[in-house]
Write a sequence for this structure.
């Protein structure tokens, strides 16, 4: 190496220093200053890790003054190189000495890095090439956004997520019964909309009591970090509009209704999707809609996508059901009377569908109804097959007719409702009541209130709210510990002893009861218990739930206040103790629903200790004898309670539980329960149920995701990523890997890796059983972030390898180039579905011939070996003049492939979207739930996608010099 002051060199080991300038050459040392960073280095000339920066004719060089020179001639007759050419800004002919080149120039183009000796290891090149291939495959995958949630693969949930999540600005009502997973369905839809780019900004509005559940569910299951907004958060913001600070926002309904100023800020923002949970709380009547309803209505008018969640059956209360549908599509659901008339039409559809589903023969009237419903197609042959064909023909005809009905009638596109009638997999529930004597201390407290007040004055007393939780009533005026005499405590202790190897969930109405119970178990018997209540922080609740969930060194029992019936699923437990009973039937179902969920593997034992001759006994008898609510899902509870709730409350206050009034109440409630249940069963819309559960399509989605889960491609790729980036990996015994940052990481900010590390697994069952494990899928932000990290940087885009092949002469060389054809378009257009970023591999010999089709990648990789840095620099120096012409040849070979790729993309796009448009257009003529803006979006999407596909360009992604050796 010969060094002269003013020459420009780049460090092989510190390329991020930028362009260096020789400032001094003395004896055996050379001094380089890196102006971009202000650093200076002194190297021994004999082994300096430096490469001279030399540009070629045709290159564009930036000067330190800001203008650029297109090189036309190079003068290297002296120690300092002078470049001659034309200025890009004004066309003036000029010269540029190398000492005047911009100090901040970086070599990130593959061939520039290769020519200047900035080569990466072979495994880095392979990582880049593999990343391009995986990106290409994922952009086209129909499972993007569906497979990434840490959820069980439950068919009806996945079907709804695919059906709704794939729509433009979906506006639907999710009305599954309790325990069927509406929150999961909504999370899957949100996740799919975000991952596919259909939505960027999400607003979730929920009751205050569900804030924690949604925050945790979105983070734990879908890796979505929502920000909770309240008055304090808004006041602390320094932005003009605090809601502009975040993309994913979670607020409670009371905040929306009670803060008009912040509401104005919220509604002025651009949101893509709004989710409203517990939508039946939005009270509406034609005369006096509630403030909450009006707020949501105004938001729904300006936000394109709306998801409403409610477990209230649509058959119970047509007016409130109409109000929810009105939020989704006010143009269609504009008049309540018209809606009632339209529902009568649904009844005819449902009646015919029910007959088909049950395999019964159609009556003449039903056949005529079916012909009228499907008059746009000739179904005569199908009706003949249904009535006179063989068994196979009948099955075919039935399925074809159902498919047409599903597609064209009812509220199936706007309403999804699954019930336990259609979804299997729920466990048996067994009620195990125990009647206990009411302690004298409790009896005295209650009698004191009854003696001093009549019925009307009792109703005004807050203390009477504690009649069914007498420990709280006792604590109001007594300092002694109630758990010292309450027989339910001894009952619980005995139960825990009897089932010492099993987990037991205890739910009570009040946080203080749970706290006191923990103290009693600890001080009386030394039993370890976790406590879960609203007074704990989110972190403390997580820790308590984890302490209960883990197998070793854990709590046998979790003591929950009422919040325990709202936020978590504890399917791993099979015993539940109802320490008291709520007065709200929905709340009782929510309590039991913590264990009675899809995924529960054993019979649920519901232990119910209650006091004889007390409000607890009244509630027990009402739930058990009137509604059978402990052993079966009670879909009638809310309606029955609306009729008898006041009478039930009056009996509790009168404290007379043996009267004829009590007996009559229980009998009347039971008769109402049977009548309403029969009405609901006879009115079941099997067409809606079939559409909501997805039939065979739902099971196919599950199979596809299971097949994806079973592939080893993702683990292999991520282990490759971890190795290259220097992340420590420690295997754990249960299909999991502990990842930890190291001091030698290639990038200190590896995506989604906390400073204290993370434990990940590629096994869905393992992730579901261990809440602190992250499930690695192609949708996981660590995986997506790793792909972005590799492909947005220069990692692995220039490399060199030795090819040991005795069949080739030593010194033979090849240049492997990886190009991509890509276009940039708004994410909501989903360009990648039709024109993914497509890798093009070119392998040229010294004559410029493309050998890519003759030499496969796997064969070549097996024969390649790494080369030491010094040898690599010598090879590059020897072949430097030949590399640029070969790059040009490779680019020409790649450009030849562009038209075919564009043509295929355009054909695929038009075929797919034309088919979708024609189906929706035909459907809109007979099913008004198809919105015109859905049709308009498809046409606009076609026009814009055509433009972007035609503008697709070639990008040079990576190059590798391959030299033959023996």
């Amino acid at each position: 190496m010969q060094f002269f002051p003013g020459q420009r060199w780049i460090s092989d080991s510190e390329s991020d220093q930028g362009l260096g300038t020789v400032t001094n050459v003395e004896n055996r040392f050379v001094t380089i200053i890196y102006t971009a960073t202000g650093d200076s280095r002194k190297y021994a000339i004999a082994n300096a890790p430096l490469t001279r920066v030399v540009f070629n004719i045709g290159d564009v060089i930036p000067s330190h003054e800001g203008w650029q020179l297109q090189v036309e001639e190079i003068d290297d007759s002296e120690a300092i190189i002078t470049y001659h050419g034309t200025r890009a800004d004004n066309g003036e002919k000029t010269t540029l000495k190398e000492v005047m080149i911009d100090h901040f120039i970086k070599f990130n183009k593959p061939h520039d890095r290769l020519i200047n000796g900035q080569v990466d290891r072979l495994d880095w090149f392979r990582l880049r090439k593999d990343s391009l291939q995986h990106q290409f495959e994922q952009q086209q995958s129909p499972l993007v956004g569906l497979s990434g949630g840490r959820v069980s693969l439950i068919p009806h949930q996945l079907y709804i997520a695919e059906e709704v999540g794939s729509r433009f600005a979906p506006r639907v009502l999710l009305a599954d019964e309790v325990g069927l997973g509406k929150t999961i369905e909504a999370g899957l839809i949100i996740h799919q909309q975000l991952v596919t780019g259909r939505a960027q900004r999400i607003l979730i509005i929920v009751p205050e009591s569900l804030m924690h559940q949604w925050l945790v569910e979105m983070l734990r299951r879908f890796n979505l970090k929502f920000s909770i907004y309240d008055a304090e958060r808004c006041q602390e913001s320094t932005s003009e509009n605090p809601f502009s600070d975040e993309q994913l926002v979670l607020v409670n309904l009371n905040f929306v209704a009670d803060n008009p100023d912040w509401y104005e800020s919220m509604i002025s923002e651009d949101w893509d999707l709004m989710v409203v949970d517990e939508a039946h709380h939005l009270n509406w009547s034609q005369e006096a809609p509630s403030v909450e309803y009006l707020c949501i209505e105004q938001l729904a008018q300006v936000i394109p996508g709306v998801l409403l969640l409610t477990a209230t059956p649509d058959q119970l209360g047509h007016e409130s059901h109409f109000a929810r549908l009105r939020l989704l599509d006010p143009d269609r659901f504009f008049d309540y009377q018209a809606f009632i008339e339209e529902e009568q039409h649904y009844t005819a559809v449902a009646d015919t569908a029910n007959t088909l589903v049950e395999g019964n023969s159609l009556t003449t009237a039903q056949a005529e109804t079916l012909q009228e419903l499907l008059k746009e197609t000739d179904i005569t042959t199908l009706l003949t097959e249904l009535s006179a064909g063989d068994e196979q023909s009948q099955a075919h005809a039935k399925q074809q007719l159902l498919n047409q009905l599903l597609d064209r009638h009812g509220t199936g596109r706007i309403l999804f409702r699954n019930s336990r009638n259609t979804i299997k997999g729920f466990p048996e529930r067994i009620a195990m009541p125990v009647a206990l004597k009411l302690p004298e201390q409790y009896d005295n407290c209650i009698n004191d209130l009854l003696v001093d007040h009549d019925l009307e004055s009792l109703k005004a007393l807050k203390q009477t709210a504690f009649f069914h939780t007498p420990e709280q009533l006792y604590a109001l005026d007594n300092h002694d510990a109630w758990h010292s005499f309450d027989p339910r405590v001894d009952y619980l202790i005995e139960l825990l002893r009897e089932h010492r190897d099993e987990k037991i969930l205890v739910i009570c109405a009040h946080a203080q009861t749970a706290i006191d119970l923990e103290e009693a178990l600890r001080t009386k018997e030394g039993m370890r218990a976790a406590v879960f209540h609203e007074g704990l922080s989110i972190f403390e609740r997580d820790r308590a739930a984890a302490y209960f969930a883990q197998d070793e060194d854990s709590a046998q029992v979790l003591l929950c206040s009422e919040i325990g019936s709202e936020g978590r699923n504890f399917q791993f437990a099979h015993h539940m103790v109802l320490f008291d009973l709520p007065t709200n039937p929905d709340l009782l179902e929510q309590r039991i629903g913590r264990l009675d969920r899809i995924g529960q593997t054993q019979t649920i034992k519901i232990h119910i200790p209650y006091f004889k001759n007390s409000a607890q006994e009244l509630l027990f008898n009402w739930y058990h004898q009137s509604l059978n609510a402990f052993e079966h899902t009670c879909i009638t509870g809310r309606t029955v309670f609306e009729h008898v709730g006041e009478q039930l409350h009056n009996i509790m206050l009168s404290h007379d539980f043996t009267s004829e009034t009590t007996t009559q109440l229980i009998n009347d409630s039971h008769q109402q329960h049977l009548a309403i249940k029969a009405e609901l069963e006879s009115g079941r819309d099997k067409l809606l149920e079939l559409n909501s559960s997805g039939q065979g399509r739902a099971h196919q989605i599950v199979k596809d995701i299971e097949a994806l889960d079973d592939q080893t491609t993702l683990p292999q790729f991520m282990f490759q990523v971890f190795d290259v980036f220097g992340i420590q990996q420690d295997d754990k015994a249960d299909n999991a890997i502990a990842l930890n940052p190291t001091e030698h990481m290639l990038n200190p900010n590896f995506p989604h890796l906390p400073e204290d590390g993370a434990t990940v697994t590629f096994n869905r069952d393992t992730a579901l059983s261990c809440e602190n494990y992250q499930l690695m899928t192609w949708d996981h932000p660590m995986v997506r972030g790793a792909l972005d990290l590799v492909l947005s940087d220069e990692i692995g885009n220039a490399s060199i390898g030795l090819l040991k092949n005795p069949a080739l002469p030593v010194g033979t060389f090849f240049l492997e180039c990886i190009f991509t054809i890509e276009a940039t378009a708004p994410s909501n257009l989903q360009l990648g579905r039709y024109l993914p970023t497509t890798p093009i591999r070119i392998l040229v010999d010294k004559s410029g011939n493309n050998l890519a089709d003759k030499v496969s990648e796997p064969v070549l990789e097996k024969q390649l070996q790494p080369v030491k840095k010094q040898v690599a620099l010598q090879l590059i120096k020897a072949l430097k003049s030949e590399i640029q012409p070969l790059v040009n040849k490779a680019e020409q070979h790649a450009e030849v492939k562009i038209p075919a790729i564009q043509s295929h993309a355009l054909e695929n796009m038009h075929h797919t979207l034309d088919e979708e448009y024609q189906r929706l257009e035909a459907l809109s003529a007979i099913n008004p739930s198809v919105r015109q803006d859905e049709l308009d979006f498809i046409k606009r999407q076609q026009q814009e996608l055509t433009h972007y596909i035609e503008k697709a360009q070639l990008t040079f992604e990576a190059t590798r010099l391959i030299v033959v050796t023996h």
About this structure: The first helix runs from residue 110 to 115. DSSP finds 32 helices and 31 strands in the chain. The two ends are 28 Å apart (CA to CA). The CA atoms of residues 317 and 770 lie 41 Å apart.
